[in-house]
Design a protein that fits this description.
The protein is built from six helices and seven strands; from the N terminus they run H-H-E-H-E-H-H-E-E-E-E-E-H. It has a three-stranded antiparallel sheet with strand order 3-4-5, with no helix packed on it. A two-stranded antiparallel sheet has the order 1-2. The radius of gyration is 21 Å and the shape is extended. The relative contact order is 0.09.
Amino acid sequence: MPYNKEAAEQFKKKYNLTIGAARNRLIRSIIFNLLKESDHHYCYRCGEEMTLDDFTIEHINPWAYKEDAWELFFDLANIAFSHSKCNSAHVRRDTKHVKKHMETHFKRTNTCLVTKTRKCYHCKKKKPLEEFVKNKAKSQGRGYICYECRPGRRKEEKRAKLDTDKE
């Protein structure tokens, strides 16, 4: 974003914020809104809902002091979102905890590997992974609809299909 020094000074004087800081806030808001729209605004660590004020971007596999640091830093599959408190608490833990997460590899679902829970796409309730239909094709080997919602959803889909066939 090209701007001149005078415009930058006026902006800082008027808003008490540099253009760079304002730009970073805007980018952060855009990212959070996209997460919320796609229903991925839940903490990677604890599974709870995040807000704009407390979410952070973190690396699943720590990149610092690694030979392939450049690749790890920019690898989008290595990025997750979490509460700032969960992110900072995780950094202070030993590396065995990090290795456990790296082995199970989080794949951008509504699944929290720490609490072994997932949010049902139908009823929107957070439930233990065992309450979801087994499906080897999905991450964590479980589907996205819980056992409780699955029969009701199938009936709704059949009813909708029959209604469209009659027309």
